Amino acid sequence: MSQNTFLLEEANRCLLCKNPRCSKHCPVNTSIPEVIALYKQGELKKAGEILFENNPLSAICALVCEHEKQCEGNCIRGIKSVPIPFYKMEEEISLKYLEELQFEKGAEDKERIAVIGGGPAGMTIALLLQRRGYKVTIFESRNQIGGVLRYGIPEYRLPKRIIDLLEKHLLDLGVKIRPNILIGPVLSLDKLFEDGYAAAFIGTGVWNPRTLGIKGESFGNVHFAIDYLKSPQFYSLGENVAVIGAGNVAMDAARTAKRNGAKVTIIYRKGMENMTASKKEITEAKEDGVEFLLYHAPLEITDDGILLKHQEEEISEEVFFPADSIIVAISQNPRANIVSNTTELKTNHAGLLLTDEKGNTTKEGTFASGDVVTGARTVVEAVHQAKIVATEIEEYCAKKRLQKCMK
Questions:
Q1: Which residues are CB-contacts of 1 (< 8 A; sequence separation ≥ 6)?
Q2: Choosing a second label site near 33 at 20 to 30 A (CA), which of 11, 24, 100, 182?
Q3: Which H, E and C letters describe 69-112, residue by residue?
């Protein structure tokens, strides 16, 4: 593997801290100094193995993590100088490792496991358990696995070929994938257990868009960001687009619409400092030419645009913002297709599945993690929790196995 000269210079600037703050602030505790040391020595394959074994989605996290809050933002070098861009090294190492990785089908001498939802959590669980000898089937409601990685993050931020590579590795390992199947109304969770699945993991994410709750939201010029990002090429938005929201999904929708030729304005009821999107996403949106209208809250949508309440310091007035299309991006909620078609699964007031800290739901043998439990969070957090849940599923199956032997 050849190395990037700039990144090699950056690796040489790393202090290789004995108590690394970068690793401490990584949700999966990536051994960053060890990987950088190997990078300096040209041991890229070994570095890639360490990254992959710790985080199977390392090549993805290198691109989509909020590095300013995690590794990069806590680098000692960043206090008086420029922080080490470890995530760029991680991208180079992990992608090359993923491209060269070869898996062979394992023994499959353990129980059958159902993974419902092929998003970040589901892919991680499937890979970990299949490698440990379980027979894993992923039930995916869409035509391809990937979840938010494939259908929620734009191509310019996360190339789909990386997800395709991970899917290939899952298939090589022996994981079965059933696309276009919605667990709940067709095959119930209870049916899976009747058919002999020892455990089921639910990682279906949050795909129901949250609404503004104002008049006009059902009009033809209104779209939800989570729907738009699935297939933006099929939307005719017009020349002027308003995006309501302040998170990373709002930025992705705005930047995608901008790249498709529209003039785009993000409308937010508070100031820039209150936006939940990462600073990097906001900066890149500005660089793309996205405009921002702050301290304006939506009141009503019309065929020609959106009526807003402008409230800033001593100003309080209603203004009309003309737009051909309005994209609503104010978070998502989970769908209820599984819960409404099964027994014993409990949710909280927001419809999120209730679990303990190890992913056990209120239904025996059923586990869950990721956004369907926590609400919309980061990919690396989903991986972290999925690793914990995979171990819990193993322990559950081993306990049941022992009980069966003792009878």
A1: 42, 44, 45, 96
A2: 100
A3: CCCHHHCCHHHHCCCCCHHHHHHHHHHHHHHHCCCCCCCCCCCE
Please state the φ and ψ torsions of residue 241, each to the nearest 5 degrees. -125, 135
- Residue 19: DSSP 8-state: S
Using CA of residue 164, residue 201, residue 128, residue 380, what is the dihedral sign?
positive
CA atoms within 13 A on the CB side of 372: 30
Amino acid at 277: A
Tally of CB atoms within 10 A around 155 = 12
Q: Are 367 and 392 in contact (CB under 8 A)?
A: yes
pLDDT in tens, 77-123: 999 999 999 999 999 999 999 999 999 888 889 999 999 999 999 99
Angstrom distance (rounded) from CA 58 to CA 51: 6
Helix axes of 44-54 and 86-100: crossing angle, nearest 10 degrees: 90
Q: Which residues pair with 187 in a beta bridge?
A: 183
Contact 321, 349 (CB under 8 A): no
Please report, as a single letter, which amino acid is at residue 118. G
Tokens 């379980």 belong to 134
Q: What is the pLDDT of residues 124-172, one digit of tens each?
A: 999 999 999 999 999 999 999 999 999 999 999 999 999 999 999 999 9
What sections of 135-182 are H helices per DSSP? 148-151, 160-173
Task: Quote the CA–CA distance of 106 and 135 in Å, as a whole number.
Answer: 10
- Taking the whole predicted model, whether its pTM rises above 0.85 is answered as yes
| First-residue to last-residue Cα distance in the chain | 55
